[in-house]
Design a protein that fits this description.
Blueprint (H helix, E strand, L loop, with lengths): L1 H13 L7 E3 L5 E5 L6 E7 L4 E5 L2 E5 L2 E5 L3 E8 L4 E2 L2 E3 H6 L4 H21 L4 H8 L7 E7 L4
Antiparallel strand pairs: 1-2, 2-3, 3-6, 4-5, 7-8, 7-9, 7-10
Helix pairs in contact: 1-3, 3-4
């Protein structure tokens, strides 16, 4: 885990990208996700049903049904990893279409991804040992190539 901890610390200290790009609600569910490049909201809770009004003991009650969803500006970057797998982190459409990355950026992106996973697992109540075990397979993965914006099928 020392190598993972070092990658996380280096990425969060560099600070080019948004390190805490996932915000949680009190019940530990995701409230919203930010583009990790520019910080704009790309995923969150939205109204999905028109307001309904009913009378309850003479009181007007307004009900709004919400659900989490990808916003119109939601896109995904696409990177190839050194093990041949793909890494497809979310970003806003503008950043996903126009982003250019250096090798230092690649390492920072992987570091903040590890940081996000670590925080998410900790907020879900996982033990330190469990978190270490789940992050271990990512220890040696590195981004080798930016493939552009993921195209929807």
């Amino acid at each position: 885990m020392n190598h993972i901890r070092e990658r996380i610390d280096n990425a969060t200290e560099r600070g080019k990208f948004v390190k805490e790009h996932i915000a949680f609600r009190d019940d530990k569910t995701i409230d919203h996700i930010l583009c990790r490049l520019c910080g704009v909201i790309i995923y969150g809770w939205a109204d999905v049903e028109a307001k309904t009004e009913t009378k309850l003991d003479g009181q007007k009650v307004v009900t709004i049904r919400q659900q989490p969803m990808k916003f119109d500006n939601y896109a995904q970057l696409q990177f190839e990893l050194n093990d041949g797998s793909l890494y497809e982190p979310p970003a806003c459409a503008s950043c996903a279409e126009n982003a250019k990355f250096s090798e230092d950026d690649f390492e920072e992106l992987m570091g903040i991804e590890l940081y996000a996973w670590e925080l998410t697992l900790q907020r879900a109540g996982r033990s330190d040992e469990h978190v270490k075990g789940l992050l271990k397979p990512m220890e040696d993965r590195e981004i080798v190539k930016h493939l552009g914006m993921k195209q929807e099928r």
